[in-house]
Amino acid sequence: MKKTKPSTIISSRSEGGPPRPSRVIFTDLDGTLLSADTYELGAAATALQVCRQADIPVVFVSSKTRAEMVALRSRLEHRGPFVSENGGAIFLPQEAWQKPPGFHGDGPFWILAMGTPHPTLVTVLQRAAARCGATVRGFSSMSLAEIIRWTGLSEPDARLARMREYDEPFRIENEAPPLLRCLEDSVAAAGLTLTRGGRFYHILGDCDKGRAVARLMTLYRQRQADTLFAAVGDAGNDLSMLRAVDCPYLVRRPDGTHDQAACFEGVVCTDGIGPEGFAQAVHIFRERP
Ligand SMILES: [Mg+2]
């Protein structure tokens, strides 16, 4: 676990405001908080409200872009920190956090970039695909119509999804296990990471959701040392985040299965699919002594 210097973060809310949080929930978005099919909250809407009333921060940790997450936060009136693009960057609202070491100011946020710039990712992916004989289609080479077809996003949301900074989602059109291993090896040789989300593979830098979450846990612990952390996810790209916390929860995918790539001893597998599973995880976590 990373440790940073203590006493650098003081919540503005802690001075005469509501009590400091003693529980924090990190959650994936697509397929977890949001339905993988409709991108709606469903049962998670009530669970988010419960968390708000109980003063439990819910931190969004997604493969989505900053632009998508800012729009979603606005729609949900969400005010907490968030992590974009599979751990590519951490965003802290300046209104509630003092600037931690290593972060820089940008608009309303303190930002810590942990990922590799997107143009480098695209170049490495193209070289690795050529070496391995893989036919890959990344977001940067897809038309807007193609992104809409593969994601089911609306056109405005698809435009936001294309504004990549630290992660390139892609499909492998001639997918086969040996070819995937070759791609993984080639990407790793370049010092980058290949991971799999609900719909796409992703190439990203030497970062993941778990490292971003660990950094945020350090910051929260500087506010309240005995904070208990939960994480909720649905796919392999959530594994590092689930392993990082005290209480990990895995929700079911739309086909009713739990992603084996995110299973490990100690993870609690919920019965519900996506947002239903998120709501169950919140209930279990709140009941925990
Ligand atoms: Mg997901």
Q: Provide mean pLDDT, rounded.
A: 91
Number of structurally distinct domains = 2
User: Spans with pLDDT under 50 lasting ≥5 residues?
Assistant: 1-18
The helix tally amounts to 9
Q: What would the CATH topology of the largest domain be? A: Rossmann fold
CATH level-four homologous superfamily name of the largest domain: HAD superfamily/HAD-like
Largest sheet entry: 9 strands, mixed
Write down the overall geometry. Answer: globular
Description:
- It is a single chain.
- This protein is an alpha/beta fold and 289 residues long.
- The protein folds into 2 domains: 12-114 and 208-287, Rossmann fold; 118-204, Threonyl-tRNA Synthetase, Chain A, domain 2, CATH 3.30.980.20.
- The protein is built from 9 helices and 13 strands.
- The protein has helices at 44-53, 66-76, 118-132, 144-151, 155-161, 177-189, 209-223, 239-244, 275-287, and strands at 23-27, 58-61, 82-84, 89-93, 104-106, 109-113, 136-138, 167-172, 193-196, 201-204, 228-233, 247-252, 268-273.
- Strands 5-6-4-3-2-1-11-12-13 form a 9-stranded mixed β-sheet, sandwiched between helices. A 4-stranded antiparallel β-sheet has the order 7-8-10-9.
- Helix 1 packs parallel to helix 9 (275-287).
- The protein starts with 22 loop residues before the first strand and ends with a helix.
- The structure holds magnesium ion.
- Magnesium ion is lined by residues 28, 30-32, 197-198, 234-235.
